[in-house]
Amino acid sequence: MRRVLVVTGGGDCPGLNAVIRAIVKRASKEKDWEVVGSIEAYNGILREPTEIMILDDAAVSGIHIRGGTIIGTTNKGGPFAWPVKLPDGTWGEADRSDEMLRKLQYLGIEAVISIGGEGSQRISQMLYEKGCNIIGVPKTIDNDLSATDVTFGFQTSVQVATEAVDKLVTTAASHNRVFILEVMGRYAGWIALNAAIAGGAEVCLIPEIEYDINKVLDKVNSRFSRDRGFAIIVVAEGARPKGGEFATNATDQVVGYNNLKLAGAAAKLKQELMIAGCKYDIRETVLGHLQRGGVPVAYDRVLATQFGVKAFEMVLEGKFGRMVNYRHPNVGSVSLLEAIEQYNFVKPDDALVTAARGVGISFGD
């Protein structure tokens, strides 16, 4: 029996289970293939004892409608940066990639399908360069991989954010308030941009367009007459004022987590507005991980299923060192190097930005 390993890495994302199910369903059509999953990304392979599970039809039955991932995930550590405690009590990192590759060989695993975002696919490329037969599947709610038109999970996250805007509109109008909705988006503002347009927000602040707080205040003030009115601001967690820095919590350090941890964009913006002279009641709402959880919308289930089927067929064809991608209307693949080469930023002249400006949304610039 030939074996393929499935790994889900990075943050969880609506549609992960649909990809896993599609891989297993497609593999079951081949009589000589078995699918196994590593628990919590590569941690399951690196741990002693090994933590893997057989992924067969029974294991994946009905999971396409569930959020999260049945094999778990993590955005800490990994084969090239395994957390180790040093003699002085501090933490360092160890490269265990060679050990992991030997273990894969011992387990009879011929190929790896890595479902993850930009960071996970960088690990995929590094493993490929060391001889691992690996295929990437793009996963990120931020839609920040430029080698594919869209990533699964993004539409569900936008839907969650849009529904939040819809709900905030009613309470903002009832109380004559300014509401700031903070959504995910470390370096790319796609969730904020789409939710602002769909929800009819007055202001949208994204990482790619630095804002002038006085222009934000001007837009807010324009929404009130005789102290009556309301305004909705959608702000990405990575948004920042002109010449300013990200809102971060530098004291919140987690062993093995190497990304800059952003926190407090909405609270920071509220303070800036108050200092700038905003006289209206301001409240902030942080969606946080609500954007990652829950049932994936139909679009994400369909796209995830297409990706899963394509990934296993690439295993059969021996097309390793590549990532599945979507270029409307086709599902294809690109090299992992191309996949991680360029970040998918919102361009200031993007058609969605133009449309947003056309309906009066301010970016604070």
Description:
- This protein is about 35% helix and about 20% strand.
- By secondary structure, it is an alpha/beta fold.
- The protein has two domains: about 1-150 and about 295-330, 3-Layer(aba) Sandwich (Rossmann fold); about 155-295 and about 345-360, Phosphofructokinase domain (Rossmann fold).
- The strands form four sheets. Strands 3-2-1-6-7-14-15 form a seven-stranded mixed sheet, with helices on both faces.
- Helix 5 links the parallel strand 6 (about 110-115) and strand 7 (about 135-140).
- The longest helix is centred in the middle third of the chain and has 22 residues, at about 155-175.
- It is elongated, with a radius of gyration of 22 Å.
- The model has no long low-confidence stretch (mean pLDDT about 95).
Features:
Rossmann fold, seven-stranded mixed beta sheet, 365 residues, elongated, 15 strands, 20% strand, 12 helices, four-stranded parallel beta sheet, alpha/beta, single chain
- Unreliable spans are none
Class of secondary structure makeup: alpha/beta
Q: Going across the major beta sheet, what is the strand order?
A: 3-2-1-6-7-14-15
- In DSSP terms (H or I, runs of 4 or more residues), the helix count works out at 12
Number of strands: 15
CA-based gyration radius: 22 Å
Q: Please tell me what the overall shape is.
A: elongated
Q: What is the CATH domain class of the largest domain? A: Alpha Beta
Report the CATH architecture of the largest domain. Answer: 3-Layer(aba) Sandwich
Question: Tell me about the biggest sheet?
Answer: 7 strands, mixed
Count of spatially separate domains? 2
In which range does the helix fraction lie? 25-40%
Mean pLDDT metric: 93
At the fold tier of CATH, the topology name of the largest domain is Rossmann fold
The SSE string, one letter per element, is EHEHEHEEHEHEHEHEHEEEHEHEEHH
Q: In percent, how much strand structure appears in the residues?
A: 15-25%
The CA-CA distance between the termini, in Å, is: 60 Å
